[in-house]
Write a structure and sequence with these properties.
The protein is α+β, with helices and mostly antiparallel strands. The protein contains 16 helices and 15 strands. The protein has a 7-stranded mixed barrel. Strand 14 and strand 15 (333-336) form a beta hairpin.
């Protein structure tokens, strides 16, 4: 066994002792996490622009007891793999985060344990770096991961009740989302001030509350080869496997895409849909033809939710998924993804955004048709008035569900990454503060609770009705 593997396995054994039963005092293992130094691990994570990327392993906190309590507040996922596959200069995925595809997938073991005597599992899998902008080392040292279950690694599928809400309980792949926008590692000082880590999960939950399939998720603490890596959002990936699980058939029956990236199938139906849209949909016959390829109610709700959130970061390239069955022929459904640039300002208005080959272009072509416009306004009033899914109390309740669950755990994220822009890499715009739960996270949670959710629905409805006149 290589020295790198020996170090990896020793540190994994430390991590596996970090979960405590409720009421237990913090043993030495908690201290090992809080005082971790990365001894034996690489001092750099590859190169970026010809410069070495410095590694960062430590935690910084004035309250070790709060971090210890936070470590016990959420499930834990431990990923263990050959150290060279993770950080190695030649083939380490963390040292080459911009690389994509099967050539940059590495074998790993994934173990998930819950606080107390909760359920657990262990499974062999493949691991890749996931995501777009936060792959760049200067943008974020905390990368996201895609976890793939294949027969060449072991069981081939994960069978486990990961999420509330029943089926499906069989998974081919999962995403460990690190967070980028509106987090404490973002390049913008304004966005770091809004760091809450909940927005994307809230958006996906809200689309499901509006009556549509949406990627489920939960929050976990992640360990890499025994080192604590921070708070992560474990979620389904709404690709072809997700579509087949929710709509029936086999995964290969589906055209699926992540923004402009085609994940499976072909683009024939997509190209036809946008050809019809770009030629104009005011004619009823052309609208009917287009709606043979698009579910109008689900699409209207998808757009209403993003307009409610004031989504400021979506275009043709990314931050949404779409899928449709091609065997038998079906309609495109859009799925919420990466909704982190939402819930920012009460008067935010993103309705004018328009980009070809994206949901915004479809919307602006559809809204010119009186029949779709009528449907759209009816759906907006359904969700934004009375007891609709986006009215004050239901919207706040969904958000509070997660804010309560992160209340203790967020101290761990603050310890792991809260000082990074202040101490290690002040990047782009200040202020470069040491971000903490008490000074920053609680303030943003209270703003959303008291100022955003109680007031946003009528503002969003007014914006929608104005464009629909």
């Amino acid at each position: 066994m290589s020295s790198g593997r020996i170090v990896s396995y020793l540190l994994v054994s430390i991590a596996l002792r970090c979960a405590l039963l409720p009421g237990q005092s913090a043993p030495v293992a908690d201290d090992a996490v809080i005082n971790q130094t990365g001894a034996g691990f690489p001092e750099t994570w590859g190169e970026n622009g010809g410069q070495k990327v410095p590694a960062y392993y430590t935690l910084k906190t004035d309250s070790p007891e709060k971090v210890a309590a936070g470590l016990r507040a959420l499930p834990r996922i431990s990923l263990s793999m050959d150290l060279d596959d993770l950080f190695g200069a030649d083939k380490g995925i963390y040292a080459h985060p911009m690389e994509t595809g099967t050539n940059w997938e590495r074998r790993a073991s994934m173990e998930m344990t819950y606080p107390g005597n909760g359920p657990s599992f262990k499974i062999d899998c493949g691991i890749r770096i996931q995501g777009g902008w936060n792959r760049r080392p200067e943008e974020s040292p905390k990368h996201s991961f895609r976890v793939i279950f294949r027969k060449r690694y072991g069981a081939g599928k994960l069978k486990f009740a990961l999420f509330d809400g029943g089926e499906p309980r069989v998974f081919d792949e999962l995403i460990l989302r690190a967070g980028c926008n509106n987090t404490w590692l973002h390049w913008s000082g304004e966005e770091r001030e809004r760091g809450d880590y909940i927005r994307d999960q809230w958006m996906r939950d809200s689309y499901r509350a509006m009556g549509h399939p949406s990627a489920r998720g939960q929050f976990v603490h992640l360990y890499l080869n025994g080192l604590y890596w921070g708070l992560y959002n474990l979620t389904e990936r709404p690709g072809k496997d997700f579509a087949a699980a929710h709509f029936g058939g086999k995964p290969n029956d589906y055209d699926a895409r992540n923004g402009e990236k085609v994940l499976s199938g072909d683009t024939k139906a997509w190209d036809k849909l946008f050809s019809l849209a770009n030629d104009g949909l005011t004619n009823s016959a052309r609208l009917r033809e287009a709606l043979e390829l698009l579910d109008p109610t689900a699409f209207a709700d998808f757009m209403i939710l993003n307009f409610y959130g004031g989504n400021a970061d979506w275009d043709r390239a990314s931050n949404w998924y779409a899928a449709r069955s091609h065997s038998p022929p079906g309609k495109y459904y859009f799925f919420v993804w990466d909704g982190e640039r939402t819930l920012e300002k009460i008067d935010a208005n993103s309705i004018s955004a328009d980009d070809d080959q994206s949901p915004t272009r479809l919307f602006h072509k559809l809204i010119g048709n009186e029949n779709f416009k009528k449907l759209f306004v009816e759906r907006a009033r359904l969700h934004l008035t009375g007891n609709g899914a986006l009215t004050a109390k239901p919207a706040l309740d969904r958000y509070e569900y997660w804010s309560k669950r992160l209340e203790a755990a967020i101290a761990c994220e603050a310890a792991r990454w809260g000082a990074y822009r202040h101490d290690i890499h002040p990047y782009k715009t200040g202020p470069y503060e040491i971000y903490t739960k008490e000074k920053h996270w609680v303030r943003e949670i209270e703003r959303l609770h008291k100022a955003y959710f109680p007031k946003r629905a009528p503002v969003a409805l007014q914006q929608i009705e104005e464009i629909s006149r």
